[in-house]
Amino acid sequence: MTTTLRTTAFVLNLLATVSLLSSCTVQPETKVWLDEDFSQGQALSGWKFTPETSWSIDTLEGVIGKGSLKVAGDGMKSYADASVTFEFDSLRGEFMRLGGWVKTEKVNYRRDAIVELTFSGEGFTYTLSQYNRNTPFSYLERTFRVPPGLDKGTLTIKFYGSAGTAWIDGLRLESVDEPLIAELPKENRYDIVEKRLRSDGNWAAPELPYRITGSTDDNSAGAPVWADLDFARLLLAAGQNRPVDPASVRIFAVDTDGKKTDCPVSFGDPLSSLSDHYLRNGTLKWKAPEGAAGYEIYFAASHAEGPRPQAGNLNLGVGELLTYDASEPNMSWLGWPGMQFEAVDADGDGDFDIYGIRTDGGTWLQRNIGSNSEPRFLPRSRALPTDRLPSPELSYITLDWDGDGVSDRVRFRRHPRTNRYHNMKGDIVVELTRNGKRTPQVVHTPDGRPVEFPNSSWSALKAADMDNDGRPDLLVGTANSDLFVLTNKGVDGELPVAEVNKVPFGYFGDDPYISGDMSLKPFPLDWDGDGYTDIVCTAWQGFYWLFRNKGVQGSLEFEEPIRFFQQGGVLVHNDSPTPYAVDWDDDGDLDLISGGCGGNIMLFENTGTPTQPNYKGGVFLQDDSGEPFFFNAVENGGTVQGMEEQYWGYLSCVPRDVDGDGDLDIIISDCLGKVRWIENTGTRQKPVLSKNVRNFYYGNQPLVTPWRNRPGVADWNGDGRLDFIVLDDRSDLMMYSQSAHNPEVLENKRKLRKADGSVFHIGRLTHPGGQGRFNMDVADWNGDGRLDLIMGEPRNYLGGGNMTIAINVGTNEDPVFEYDYMMARGGYFVEWTGSDGHDAWHCCMPCVFDFDGDGRPDLLVGTESGRISLYSHDYFDGEKFPIFKAANFDRKQGNKVFRILDFENLTEKTKGLNTRNVQLQKLPEQSEEYLTGEGIKVEIVSPTVGIVLSGKVPYVATVTGNKSVTGVDFYINGEKICTEKSAPYVAYGDDNLWDTAEVPDGHCILKVIVHTADGESYETESGFEVKNK
Asked: What does pTM read for this prediction?
């Protein structure tokens, strides 16, 4: 039963059951500002609902009381919100805690969060996110620091579904005194009453206090098993608020006789966090041993020194992330992309730790287990409740710019642009306080020019006295590759004045101020305790530099920057790495060479064996002059997506012997689509890479393809020369062959074809950035002696998985292909190393090689978040993936064992703690829980039937019904023009129009076909008259 909400102006009687009085003074002694269970089924005072028709009180759903707040998609709009504002006379302390329960059902696919609970004030926002499209009520909670003296704040519920429903219940906002932050709530959030067991059931890991038992529906030996455990919430249910310790996790396989065998398990990068709820929160991955009838999973919460990573790379081939040995030094990485961060002594041990905020997976902490003089970090993990919370990240800085003793404000200002392909300019505004009023003025140089930043789609601003003259200076990073310090020179009349300085990195001889990255984020602090302000800086790739201030009075001078290093953790290159397994140094094992978004090339040297690799920390490859490679689009003024990406290299690498001299060169393709090569002027054992990057030519013109397009390179016909497969500017697959006379010259250009005789065309969007985005490798995937194509493509283009395969049904000399999704055990292959949507979105970068020496090809995949995952060939074989189903959750204390949860008997509150009991490796749309529902209704809502069409018009369809939609095909006169995968369903993408001039004047038929996860299709069509001439 639902009750429609009506926002009204009347104020409820204080004795009414509604627990919130909004926009009125709350008594100073009150610490709980909101405690709402939505059980009254009547209008809520002070709330604002947009649109009102989407929101209601549902008295049949809820976990607290008898009701919940319900929001439903209307099939068209993809956003709805509800908000309420508080005024604080006296906010006790600077810490607040927001919590609540969120349930979702059959919401349309979205790359990011489905529901957000936000608390915002002037210049700041904190967010709790629900990423699941279908989930029982799940508890979200976050404790955060607010600016001192906060007098107003707004709680907002945001729903990003154009279809489906969400329910919100048990919202609570409260002030928290600092000593209470680390304490558990007095009441158990899940209303759990533990039961003591008579026996410990032969507790196999006595050193670990928690155990989950369960089994799989398929016990086939060697099958890849995934079990996702939401450790943060499970531990909270067990009365523990510390995060899980990844190093503690052990799995025992139990046979039919009860014998238990230790089973290697991968747990590379646990996402589980109370502030966010992901599709996968803590996925354990292992290979089923022979004779396993069940499993016992043991684990512990982190100890007081913080979580530790797993010991090393297991090389299981079950989709796990590649990891370093726990002692291997490698560049510190807090997440992708370059994020808001703060260096602070979080754990109170006297040295600086680093928080990464708003990364893939929310907020992470890197704990410094060395010292400030010799920093050494643990891989990123969730913070402990006893750790100091990060400061609020404000959109402005409060300081005294002109030294008059009165606080002023400084902010970075971005100027508007009409579309994303245009440059976004920025400047710095100082709001000088005069007679109690703030007057905004742009910062100028001493000679009177306004300080402008030409590439400001991303920006970062901090303040500190950098030149030791007693005045606050500004540190600025933008989407470019350099870091600025604006030294404060006071005011000239009413104009703030600053001198613009660049901080030298010293990596590139031709420009020492270039960092080799983009979108820099500085943080000022006295790192070494010498009384002078240093700079810690990160950028898009998520690695870190430290600039030590030499402390020269009235001047800016820094020591050479050093990088921070961690020990252990996952292998990371940067955004969208393109890994390639190759024996780079000819020592008999496979190393990794990788390009990536950062435009550099990284080497991960294997110091282990061919089948049990052990990787050294990644290093950037340098040319023969000692400079690291850095490819970008500066010379062209940007990529096809504009100037904001001029420092994004989108580099892919294919190591091959291009010139036939017996050593490995590197073929590259970059953000401008240039296919070139780097010559190895050294030897096979000791490569030396030339600074002179050389073109490939076809018809006396350099070979250029659409951007983000790794070529498939192999000798197809056995003539000893390389053949290249690339996309052309029409998105057709083309093959070129090396000339016998010059390895840089390509000839014999021809289009590849499918088995039906048609040109091998790869569907792409028509806008500039929609082209390319296509990475391939060449290998005999099915063992028939013929070379096939394995291709990484964006999920938002494909709508299913994010990899396709072209099986060669012709010959290597004359290949003909059958093109389809890459399948894995009955479902589309999807890269799932990240659970917040990104890794399955833009693209995945495949490399085919035989890692386990069984003669069959295996797969490496580079993910958008910078990490690399491994799949053996038998990951793909078989009819289905095993489903792990949890049975019980127990706790051991001394010689006593207590039953926390029986997963067969869960309440509305505890249902969200269960394992999902589906094939986790598949898309949700392919799981049976999504394949139920009534039929689909599809309607073309734009253009409007009956009007005469001319010029550019939106081509839009709405889809209603309870089935899961996997794709919506748009047709014009019988020809499919595009497929859209997420609502709103707009041909060519949300902001694009159909140019009717592309079809002849006269009668035109528009048709839309909707495909659902159960294999059904639904269609509609309408006729229109087109008249452009």
From this structure: 0.90
